[in-house]
Amino acid sequence: MNISGKVALVTGASSGIGRRQSQVMAAAGAKVILLARREEGLDEVRDSITERGGHAVCLAADLLDKLSSMAEISNQATVIFGGVDILINAAGLNYREDVDAITPDSWRRTIDLNLTVPFFLAREFIPGMREKGWGRIVNLASLQSSRAFQGGLAYGASKGGIAQLTRAMAQAWSRHGINCNAIAPGFFHTRLTEKVFEDAQQVSRLAAQTAIGRNGQLEDLDGITVFLTSPASDYITGQVIYVDGGFSAQ
Length: 250
Hints:
This protein has 250 residues and is of the alpha/beta class. It has helices at residues 16-27, 39-50, 70-81, 104-132, 153-173, 194-197, 200-208, 222-228; strands spanning 7-11, 31-36, 55-60, 86-89, 135-140, 178-185, 240-243. It has one domain (7-249): NAD(P)-binding Rossmann-like Domain (Rossmann fold). A seven-stranded parallel beta sheet has the order 3-2-1-4-5-6-7, with helices on both faces. α3 (70-81) crosses α4.
């Protein structure tokens, strides 16, 4: 479980799951590159890490605007700490639109950020990981990778794609020492799920649907994040691991 000295890049690092994963990676000894759109949010995360003796640097960029220039992002990241060993694709978008409200633009933005960016960004770091013979890619899947929820057609399509993308990444790159897995969280209170958690009755219903009897807390993701990015997971690749309190088992 030792990731001391490893360099990790986390997208969506300014809030929610990406923020928490950045903090736990730094606490475990990794040097973390924080990537997100909002500079002020990134500064807060960086300060929270450095105040505890960790190492973190901010890299502000809109990944949707940079989709055709992922090489620029990877070059900037490589200059900071001399290479990236671990990539966590935590940036995400969910408009929660009814089927009839989905537009070509909202569909494209959802698919691009949730599915297209993780592939093209990961591919930029593969040569460096292959040269070292070691790397870790962790994608963010979802309960909607395997089941449908109302108002989640585009989001569900993107997260179903992430499950298959993770398996395909593993098939392509694991022989070079680059393991690729995905974490599928249950219901956690983040900016992305703010509308869900505004409804107290719905929150209670969702908690009751888990085997454990509660919704997720961000610290519930700490262990799996460090495990999947460390040598402890050397023989695990191509997997989608549900961290949902047993929601998907019911």
